[in-house]
Write a structure and sequence with these properties.
The complex is a heterodimer of chains A (263) and B (291). Chain A has 263 residues and is mainly alpha-helical. Chain A has helices spanning 4-30, 33-53, 57-74, 80-102, 106-114, 125-151, 153-158, 163-185, 187-204, 208-233, 237-262. Chain B has one domain (13-290): ABC transporter involved in vitamin B12 uptake, BtuC, CATH 1.10.3470. In chain B, helix 2 (42-62) packs across helix 8 (178-219), helix 5 (123-129) crosses helix 8 (178-219) and helix 6 crosses helix 8. At the A-B interface, helix 2, helix 4, helix 5, helix 9 and helix 11 of A face helix 2, helix 4, helix 5, helix 8 and helix 10 of B.
């Protein structure tokens, strides 16, 4: 399980899970799960487009994730869920068109959608680490404003905090993080890791800093458990990431309800 | 007209069935989707489509009818969402997210098992992106019957649902069982989405559920006019999309047609943008004439 071809999976997986746990904390806090679902799917279309044109997938991933983030962030004011839905379906439809024009093999499509963590190349470790560090820095920088905005939006804007700029900055960070996680755990499952463990962490503790750390820990444990399970059973890692993320949430929900009733 | 309608378009059986089933699904999606947009449930509407995908893929593994798989999958998803998130409205976002995340995990498993067990390729793309052109006549029939059932149920549920959507507190005070109405509506949405996911793919089902109603609501007319406009927008996008997709076969020497789902989604988005632009121009003119 710790043989040489698995080393890359462990390194990249851990980095990706830590980042997903951190961004996910803010996603759950701000109630932007739909955007967190839509942006990785936009990134998927970018990877498909890059394959069609013949450039590095990472460029396409980042370009399309940023486009999706801008589209969602720009129309924040009225009916943001409609804008998110439309951005999402447009990106997915573009992805479908790119795929059918380039006639990619189905395993490649599956890898983009559901991830191929065991096939991470050594050359992709450095970019993944660098971009996650950049995202982590951006999140650390935005930590207080984001909390302030989520807790008391009116007070925050009265104090001179521009909610649109903040939203945009957060969406862009989300986009960069997604572009990174898509090739590793896949477009559809990046999302599971960003919602399940953080939502569980929010149930366990109400203190923001503790919840953030708990969220990152739960996310890493979820991914590690998924890799182990996938290695043992030969089933796709995405299946375990999705199931375990949901289970972590359900477990936290049941546990907190039991404790709450006793107290 | 030959430059636009390529020869043989209407004599093609696949095209006719495709337009027919696409039109029926577009109308039902528009009617049900109006409430989805009004209630701000786009995320749930989209998530149900993805959950239905898990059901559709599961039917491929376990060997029962795909239509049953899609609809049952969506229904189970709707039940799970309601079970997790009924207590507080703010939890709805997370509840939807958790169910969606778990369901995508299941689709990953089922799609993997399908590619493992069968030699047929393209099943992943087919389930996710669908194609109007390969709908069978039998599916058309079942889809039409289910659509009629959904429309009848919506007519029955319509008034309390509208009341509960526009002002939940007032509806509650007047004795409307708001949570039960919400649950029933989620079930209706699940059936609609499951139905449209099998005929046009889970991606397109969200486009037809949200796009045309959002455009019609932006025009801000009376309720019945909004229903009609939404349905018309949906049907127009499907019909035009089919024609464009069919034509695109002749555009390139490689004869790789644009996927019909892509054409329909693009047209839906174009409609929404056009309505927004028109709205902006006309409201400005009203302000100017008043001044």
């Amino acid at each position: 399980m710790f043989s040489s071809f698995m080393t890359n999976a462990w390194i990249v997986g851990t980095v990706v899970a830590l980042l997903a746990g951190a961004t996910g904390f803010f996603v759950v806090l701000r109630g932007s799960s739909f955007a967190a679902h839509a942006i990785p799917n936009g990134a998927f279309a970018g990877a498909a487009g890059a394959t069609l044109v013949g450039i590095t997938p990472l460029v396409g991933l980042i370009a399309f994730a940023v486009m999706a983030a801008l589209g969602i962030g720009a129309s924040r004011r009225h009916r943001s869920d409609v804008a998110t839905a439309m951005a999402l379906v447009m990106m997915l439809a573009l992805g479908a068109a790119f795929l059918s024009l380039s006639a990619a093999y189905e395993p490649q499509v599956d890898a983009l959608l559901f991830g191929e963590i065991l096939g991470v190349a050594t050359s992709s470790i450095a970019p993944v680490v660098i971009i996650s560090l950049a995202c982590a820095l951006a999140l650390a920088f935005m930590y207080r404003p984001l909390l302030f905005n989520a807790a008391a939006p009116d007070l925050a804007s009265a104090r001179g905090l521009n909610p649109t700029v903040l939203e945009m900055a957060f969406m862009l960070t989300l986009a960069l993080g997604s572009a990174l996680t898509v090739p590793v755990v896949g477009a559809l499952l990046t999302f599971s890791l960003t919602v399940g463990p953080p939502a569980a962490a929010r149930l366990i503790t109400r203190r923001p800093a503790t919840a953030l750390v708990t969220s990152m820990l739960l996310s890493v444990v979820t991914l590690w458990a998924s890799i182990v399970a996938s290695y043992q059973t030969n089933l796709p890692v995405g299946f375990f990431v999705g199931t375990f993320s949901a289970l972590v949430y359900v477990a936290a929900r049941v546990a907190t309800q039991r404790l709450g009733r006793r107290a | 007209m030959h430059w636009f309608l390529e020869p043989g378009l209407w004599s093609n059986d696949a095209v006719r069935t495709g337009v027919g089933v696409g039109g029926v699904v577009a109308i039902v999606s528009a009617l049900v989707g109006l409430f989805t947009v009004m209630r701000g449930q786009s995320f749930a509407g989209h998530a149900l489509a993805d959950v239905a995908t898990a059901g559709g893929a599961g039917s491929g593994v376990l060997g029962f009818s795909p239509l049953a798989g899609f609809v049952v999958g969506a229904l189970v998803g709707a039940g799970a969402m309601e079970a997790i998130g009924v207590e507080r409205v703010r939890q709805r976002d997370v509840a939807t997210g958790v169910v969606l995340g778990g369901a995508t995990g299941l689709s990953a498993l089922f799609l993997y098992l399908i590619t493992l067990n069968s030699s047929s390729t393209g099943s992943t793309q087919l389930i996710l992106f669908g194609s109007l052109f390969i709908v069978s006549k039998a599916t058309f029939f079942v889809a039409a019957v289910l659509s009629a059932v959904v429309c009848l149920a919506l007519a029955w549920l319509g008034r309390p649902l509208l009341f509960a959507s526009l002002s939940p507190d007032a509806a509650n005070a007047r004795g409307v069982a708001v949570t039960r109405v919400a649950l029933l509506y989620t079930v209706l949405m699940a059936v609609t989405v499951g139905l449209s996911a099998i005929v046009i793919g889970s991606v397109l089902s969200t486009a037809l559920l949200i796009g045309p109603p959002a455009a019609a609501l932006r025009l801000g007319r009376s309720l019945s006019a909004t229903f009609t406009t939404a349905a018309a927008f949906g049907v127009a996008a499907v019909a035009l999309g089919v024609v464009v997709s069919y034509d695109s076969y002749y555009w390139w020497p490689s004869h790789r047609a644009l996927p019909v789902s892509f054409c329909v989604v693009t047209l839906v988005v174009v409609e929404l943008i056009a309505v927004n632009v028109v709205r902006r121009v006309t409201t400005r003119r009203i302000v100017e004439t008043r001044e």
